[in-house]
Amino acid sequence: MDSVQHGQPVSVQVCDACDARFDARDARVQCASCEGLLHVQHPQPPTCGVALRESFDARLLPARGPQGTGPGDSGVWRFRELVMPDARDEDLVTQGEGNTPLLARPRIAAWAGVDHLLLKHEGLNPTGSFKDRGMTVAITQARRINATAVACASTGNTSSALASYAALAGLRGLVLVPAGKVALGKLSQTIAYGAQTLLVRGDFDDCLRLCRQSSEQLGVYLANSINPWRLEGQKTIMFDLLQQLRWQSPDWLVLPAGNLGNTSAFGAALREARRLGLIDRAPRLACVQAAGSAPFAASFRDGFATRHTVRAETIATAIRIGDPASHERAVRAIRETDGVVLTVTDDEILEAKAIVDASGVGCEPASAASVAGTRKLVRDGTIQRGARVVALLTGHMLKDPEVMLAYHRDTEPAPACANRSIEIDATLAAVERVLRSGSDLS
Length: 442
Ligand code: F0G
Known about the structure:
Elements: E1 3-5, E2 8-10, E3 12-15, E4 21-23, E5 38-41, H1 49-58, E6 102-104, H2 106-112, E7 116-121, H3 131-144, E8 149-153, H4 157-169, E9 172-178, H5 184-193, E10 196-200, H6 204-218, E11 221-222, H7 228-244, E12 252-256, H8 261-275, E13 284-290, H9 295-301, H10 327-336, E14 340-344, H11 346-358, H12 365-379, E15 388-393, H13 401-410, H14 428-437
Bound molecules: ligand F0G.
């Protein structure tokens, strides 16, 4: 039943564990009585089914803001009824996020062993990752509740997004990242956008614990994915994708999984899309973890009987997480979609990344886990060759230049897909020698 204020239905924050309800403008991101995580419940939109689909589709027509960054340009705020229905245009902290392309690349599909593979490239968001979708909503909320500072723990992408959106909103940003374990592109962005950057001698799980304590005791607004408004924004990856597919679900959606915010958001988005008649069938979710950082995969293997934690290690630093915060919600998402959870090795991630990069698309290492995972699921017969598969690319290739250079330039012996550069004298003869020696170049 909708909550009502001054005769109008309003959104509320509801505890996952005990159903306690809190005002939508309450700054706490955990239940005041049992410390459970909160989710947001919105009033029923004025329409549903085909009519709601049509109203979302109508907004695809150009409605550009003055600088091309108004609400009409955002692939998040197009779905406002399902994200933050009472947000006013002047409240929004937005910069044209979302609306990311859905790409067909036969070479990647052939490598993965499927006939129909599409890549939803969230790395093409303004700060280069899907985190912008949640952050536009969390920072809009921060401004609505008059927060003066916002904070997050991060493996680098959340911190980049927070730093950017905090700067747009004129809010102080504080980020806690694991010292020495953040990819160069992400660290540089975070610093340059102006967030106060704390390099914590610990891992992501330490950073998140510290950040939760800081938000409870020092009064900064927490913008990690346990913040319910972040997930409202991340749901729009799914809405945007379904809209691109003319509201026909694919058979599978394969995504990299770390702190499990996206998995949880997708579970919520699909539940809502079905309840509102936007779709009649949901895709199966396949969550891919790096083998050295795979507590969720371990839990899946024992039928989710136990919640596992690990000391995480992987070259894909974005998903180097051993104690995912949104475990319970992600379990629900996997159960409801008849999903699977699997692991891929760092070598498999690097090979998949080299294929994605060389196809001209490009992505960061964690993102390539979804393509590596697709291949593994096809090989073990879980995904049929003829299935319609969407793999999520979560981050831009320039996020982690060090891993790319190490792979192509420094690894001995050279990996199968290595593209070695050659230093030459500044002579035409030297160029000619190279051209003649590579038969596929002549
Ligand atoms: N891919 C990328 C590029 C990420 O940055 C992350 C998470 C994930 C996948 C995993 O998503 O946590 O929702 O399961 N990055 C967070 C960060 C932890 O701090 O940037 P998840």
